[in-house]
Structures are given as C-alpha cells and as structure tokens.
From TrEMBL:
This is D-galactonate dehydratase family protein. Residues 129-267 form the Mandelate racemase/muconate lactonizing enzyme C-terminal domain. SMART domains: MR_MLE. It holds the Pfam family MR_MLE_C. It comes from Cellulomonas avistercoris.
Length: 412
C-alpha cells in the first residue's frame, strides 16, 4: 500500500495547528499532529523539506520500519522539532492501518483495557472565589478530576491562569487558557518563588475545605523550582492529598527528583517536554516518578508512547499524557487510543478545543461524565475539513517568558 501524497496543512482556528496528511495509492488517508506550540513553522519545514520526499512510494503498512528509518537516518537525534515530525508520520500511518483494517487504532494496540479514560481539566482563578467558580464549572461539565492553578500575591501574570480565556457562548466552553499569545513578541511575566511557595498550600487548604476530600486535585509547577524548593512544595502539599504534582523541577535535571522523593510522598508527574523513551529511562527505573506526562505529538507518536508505557508498567508507573489545547484533536486521539489499550493508564489531560477547532477537525471521540473515549470509527477517528482549515491562515504566536524582580530571566 504505497504512499502517494504527503501534505502538510497549517491552520489557526484558535491557535496554530500543523497536520500531516498521508494518502495511499488506494485512496486511504491518515492524519498526524506535528504542532509545536510557538515554533510551528520549524516542523513544517522539517516535514516539507526533509521528510515528505522520503515518504512518497514507501509502504504505508511498515510503521515501525518507517519510524526507525526516519529516526536513525537523520543521525541527529531527539529534539522537539525532529520528534514532532516523526510523530506526525507515525500517527498518520496508524490512522491508515486502522482504516485499512476497518478497526479503531486501540484495537490494533491490543483492544480496550477499560470502558473510558478518566480526564482532568484546568480550573484556575486569580483569587479564590474565581477559582472556586472555575472548579464548579468543570464539575458541571462532568469533570471528576481537576487541576488547580491560582494567582500569587504580588505577581501580575502567571502560568495557568485563564486571564486571557475567551468564553464560547454557544458551547459554554472556555478556551485558550494556554499561554501562547498571537502577536509579534512574547509576553513578559513576573515570578517570585518564595511568594509562590508560601501561597500554594493555602490555596489547596481552601479548595479541600470547599470541595471535600474526594475530588482528585492536580497542580503544575511548570519547571520553576530548584530541587530543594520543589521538595518543600511537595512536602507542604501532602495534607491535601494531590493526585499529582507536575513538573516541579526543570526537565533537564532529572536527578533533582531524587531529592524531592527523599522528602515527600506527593505523587510526581513529569515529561511533557521529553522527546524520547530514553528520557524516561532512569526516572522510571529508579521510581522517581508516578506518572508519564509524554505527549504523542512531541514524543515520536503512538509507537514510542506504547513502548514507554510497557516499560513503565514494570515499575507501577502510570500514564498521564499531555493534553493541552496545543495538542491538536489528532494528537489527542492518538493518546486516547494508547490510553484505552494499555493496562497502566492513569489519567488523561483534557482541556477541550473551541468550536472553530472542532469544525476543522471532525472527531468521533466522546466525553461523558468525566470519561473520554476515542470512538469506534476505523483509524484515529479524526477527519480534517480542508475548506474549513483553509479559512484560518497561520498567525505568529509566542509562548511567554518570566523575569524575576531583579530582571533575571526565569523558567515560566
Ligand atoms: C500542561 C502544560 C501546558 C504547556 C503548553 C505549552 O500541563 O498542560 O504545562 O500548559 O504550558 O503545552 O505549549
Ligand atoms: Mg504542564
């Protein structure tokens, strides 16, 4: 089943998405997500200029061989641009294979291990009343697990707060909580770790007091702490029984997690900016994390996601795949198929795309009573409306950055 066309489609219904669309000689199509938030066009070039010529004429059935060929023949390993490009090819090939077999991709991965995927959404508010409203809104939409982010006294703008959110009156969906700003230059935010460390435990105490002990709560540290600061935060949050504390230290310093573990039993999740199975090797083997935060899109696709989870299963480490709105509906579908099939599923992040995005990407997935299901349409269950996509040309967008009070650039 030869690949006869490979098109790279860029569209920006609410934010930029990069999608690879493969067509085979018998007319089957497959989609793959190649979106790298804030650096989208680098992946477009990697695909168009370097990968597409290698795909034409290849057998679409040979997923593993194509993955290994793209990874090894490039010689230059890893990195988000390379791995997003390979991810898109891998997902598109699984999509094609599912369609050829007449089965949803999760069937090809071993079949369903559960009836649905527990999802968590992003509640946020600058102050407590706003945050409580946001938690309630999420509960009304069915969410049974909720991530909590708040403002910090003295800081004007901080990661994870829906200050720029827009509200879709038709669907009741709030979207674009995510930090990417359309425009010519990135937004500058401010940061003060001491103030953050003092404030966050008081927020979780208030949330537990308001919503009780049952509701699973999550929090994202977004790589901003030193090892000892992260250990302090993880320890101080223990009374509030978090489902997980995410990205408490910078992703490059994996050994930092040893120190956090020595001090705390708060479960840890990491890996949304990791690119390969190898990035997880040591921290899974030493049981320094509890949840794998990899995304299908920045991690080389479905094939490596399944591999890392099979490895993690030996250490009772579970999945918590990265599902913000900058993962397209195609990337999200890829994660849902893996999550449904593996035994060691934990939770799926699900922020919800806006109505315009849903018109560009028609999806078979469902979200019912807090549980996701990818649907039973053959392949990934996502089709792209090309005319709709064509209405929204690329718009330059940057992620923000932080400075400390003395002007030093800091992780945001
Ligand atoms: C998350 C992530 C996102 C990232 C975003 C950057 O936990 O969902 O931290 O919010 O900031 O994906 O593009
Ligand atoms: Mg995160």
């Amino acid at each position: 089943m030869k690949i006869v066309a490979a098109d790279v489609i860029v569209t920006s219904p609410h934010r930029n998405f990069v999608t690879l669309r493969l067509t085979t000689e018998d007319g089957l199509t497959g989609l793959g997500d190649a979106t790298l938030n804030g650096r989208e066009l680098a992946v477009v070039s990697y695909l168009r200029d370097h990968v597409v010529p290698l795909l034409i004429g290849r057998d679409a059935h040979r997923i593993e061989d194509t993955w290994q060929f793209l990874y090894r023949s490039a010689y230059w390993r890893r990195g988000p641009v390379t791995m997003a490009a390979i991810a898109a090819v891998d997902m598109a090939l699984w999509d094609v294979k599912g369609k050829a077999a007449g089965m949803p991709v999760y069937q090809l991965l071993g079949g369903a291990s559960r009836s649905g995927l527990l999802a968590y959404g992003h509640a946020s508010g600058k102050e407590l009343p706003e945050l409580f409203d946001s938690v309630r809104e999420h509960q009304e939409k069915g969410y049974q697990a909720i991530r909590v982010q708040t403002g910090v006294p003295g800081l004007k703008s901080i990661y994870g707060i829906a200050s720029n959110a827009t509200f879709d009156g038709n669907t009741g969906v709030r979207y674009d909580h995510e930090p990417a700003q359309r425009g010519d230059l990135p937004n500058e935010e401010d940061w003060d770790t001491r103030s953050y460390l003092r404030h966050v435990p008081t927020v979780f105490e208030a949330v537990r007091h308001e919503f009780g002990p049952e509701l699973p709560l999550l929090h994202d540290g977004h790589h901003r702490m030193t090892p000892i600061q992260a250990a302090r935060l993880a320890k101080s949050l223990e009374p509030y029984d978090l489902f997980w504390l995410e990205d408490c230290t910078p992703a490059e310093n994996q050994e930092a997690l040893r120190l956090v573990r020595q001090h705390s039993i708060t479960p840890l999740a990491i890996g949304e900016i990791f690119n390969t199975v190898w990035d997880f090797q040591m921290i899974i083997r030493e049981q320094l994390i509890d949840y794998v935060r990899a995304a299908s899109t920045h991690f080389g696709g479905i094939s490596p996601l399944k591999k890392v989870m099979d490895y993690a299963a030996q250490y009772q480490v579970r999945s918590g795949f990265h599902g913000p709105t900058d993962i397209s509906p195609v990337g999200l579908a890829a994660q849902m198929h893996v999550g449904l099939a593996i035994h060691n599923f934990g939770i799926q992040e699900y922020m919800q795309h806006g109505a315009r995005t849903d018109e560009v990407f028609r999806q078979s997935m469902t979200f019912t009573d807090g549980f996701l299901h990818p649907g039973d349409t053959p392949g990934l269950g996502v089709e792209m409306e090309l005319d709709e996509a064509g209405k929204y040309p690329y718009q330059r967008a940057y992620l923000p950055y932080n400075r400390l009070a003395d002007g030093t650039v800091h992780d945001w």
